[in-house]
Every structure is written in C-alpha cells, then in structure tokens.
Amino acid sequence: MQMRFDGLLGFPGGFVDRRYWSLEDGLNRVLGLGLGCVRLTEADYLCSHLTEGPHRVVAHFYARQLTLEELHTIEISAVHSRDHGMEVMGMVRVPLYTQKDRMGGLPNFLANSFVGTAKFQLLFALKILNMVPEEKLAEAVAATQKPKKAAIDQAGGAA
C-alpha cells in the first residue's frame, strides 16, 4: 500500500479514461509511472466498488502475487517516481500477523485511516486470497472496533 500526501493509506493506481484505454492498459500506464515494472492483466482482477455521492467513482481492484525480488524492485522504483514526496510519501507493507498482545501487527494497521474503498479492498483481498486465516482476520477487525475507554481511563488515572 502507499501512504498518501493527506495521511491516508491507499493502493497505487489512478483514473483511467475508458475512451482511450482498457482498464488494464490504463492501469498499467499509471502504475508504470509510479512503480515501473509491474503489469496487471484481466486475470489479476478481484472486484469493483461504486462510491456514492456527488463524485461517483468506480474503483476496480486488482491483486497480483509477487516474488520478494519483484517487491523490492517495485519499492525501489516507487522512491524514484515523479509523485514520491508530493502525492505519495512512500510504500507501506501490510503486517499479516497479530502480536501476542492482540493489537500489534494487523489490528494496529487496520486502525489507520484509509482513502475511499481501500480498507474494504484490503480486507476483501486478505480474505479471498487466503493471506490471513479468516478467524484471525475477524479478530483483527474486531480488535480495532473495541472502545478505547480502558486506555483513556488508564491514562487519566496515571495523570
């Protein structure tokens, strides 16, 4: 994922004008500007989501398995892209584990702020691609939804 200029987490991508590009051609053009070497095809398509409101957008989500070498190449390319430091602050790896305290790792990561449909897309991909066991994913999501009252009470008692 990427940390955006506005502090929100999101996936690499951009807008595609369907008058000139197929979804995959347009996406590969946008990804090529920011990430360099990755190419997506129809086989990498996972889902689409329509956002409601005055600026309706259809977000198409693609995922592709990479080797560690390919991931390193993409991370290096991202630092040298024209958008780095302006639109994108850097790449972020999603922790696919939960620490013994049941908050560290994925639960803490999910407590971040995400742009648009990015959190939904992330959870969908983790589930559908079996990257995190379903029960662990449910626990991580539940941990981010628990009230923070206990932590606030402890902080207040320490003051």
TrEMBL record:
One of its GO terms (cellular component) is nucleus. One of its GO terms (molecular function) is snoRNA binding. It holds the Pfam family Nudt16-like. It is found in: Nucleus. The gene is Nudt16l1. Its main location: nucleus. Signal peptide: none annotated. This is TIRR protein. InterPro entries: NUDIX_hydrolase-like_dom_sf, NudT16. The keyword Nucleus applies. Keywords: Nucleus, RNA-binding.
